[in-house]
From TrEMBL:
Its biological purpose: Involved in the retrieval of endoplasmic reticulum membrane proteins from the early Golgi compartment.
A Gene Ontology cellular-component term: endoplasmic reticulum
Transmembrane residue ranges: 38-57, 63-84, 140-157
Organism: Rubroshorea leprosula
Protein name: Protein RER1
Length: 194
């Protein structure tokens, strides 16, 4: 019994080991890109431009592009939504600050920026590969798909913006929050000195 299990493991071991090593190298370089957000997004824009040129040059694969657009819209909603939706999950207190005197709580996304970028990049790469297989080139009238996607995008964004206004959160944070001190005590002390 031991001999049979050992033979199977040693036969599958080189392929499994190679796959494991390749995954580690891939993960290592993926981790190294984490702090370089601007360069990551520039790379994704280049990949998106290559995909657009491919679709334009072959004049087809509109259904793949439509599916890609729906997937990207889904990712965008996850990126703009809070981790815990106050509408869905009832809690004891407010999750997001509603007044200036409330405690500052940073906005935590349902889909973090790195996963958002990674999913978009992977989606464009998969869609690009799909353009080389004729079975995915379903003949459709692309202006109808484009109009439907624009309507879907508009309605979804309107609902998302209404949600943001209702629960008073902004999903975009630029830079680090800085403490400016107490304004009222600083202005009163300067008026005393005069």
């Amino acid at each position: 019994m031991e001999g049979l299990g050992g033979d199977t493991l040693s036969a599958a071991s080189p392929a499994s080991q190679w796959r494991n090593d390749a995954w580690r190298v891939y993960q290592f370089y993926l981790d190294k890109t984490t702090p370089h957000a601007v360069y990551r997004w520039i790379g994704t824009l280049v990949i998106a431009a290559i995909y657009c040129l491919r679709v334009y040059s072959v004049q087809g694969f509109y259904i793949v592009s439509y599916g890609l657009g729906i997937y990207l819209l889904n990712l965008l909603i996850g990126f703009l939504s809070p981790l815990v939706d106050p509408e869905v999950e009832a809690t004891d207190g407010p999750l997001l600050p509603t007044k200036g005197s409330d405690e500052f709580k940073p906005f935590i996304r349902r889909l973090p920026e790195f996963k958002f970028w990674y999913s978009i990049t992977k989606a464009f790469c998969i869609a690009f590969v799909m353009t080389f297989f004729s079975m995915f080139d379903v003949p459709v009238f692309w202006p109808i798909l484009l109009c439907y996607w624009i309507v879907l995008f508009t309605l979804t964004m309107r609902r998302q913006i209404a949600h943001m206004i209702k629960y008073k959160y902004i999903p975009i944070s630029i830079g680090k929050q800085k403490y400016t001190g107490k304004k009222s005590s600083a202005s009163s002390s300067s008026s005393r000195e005069d």
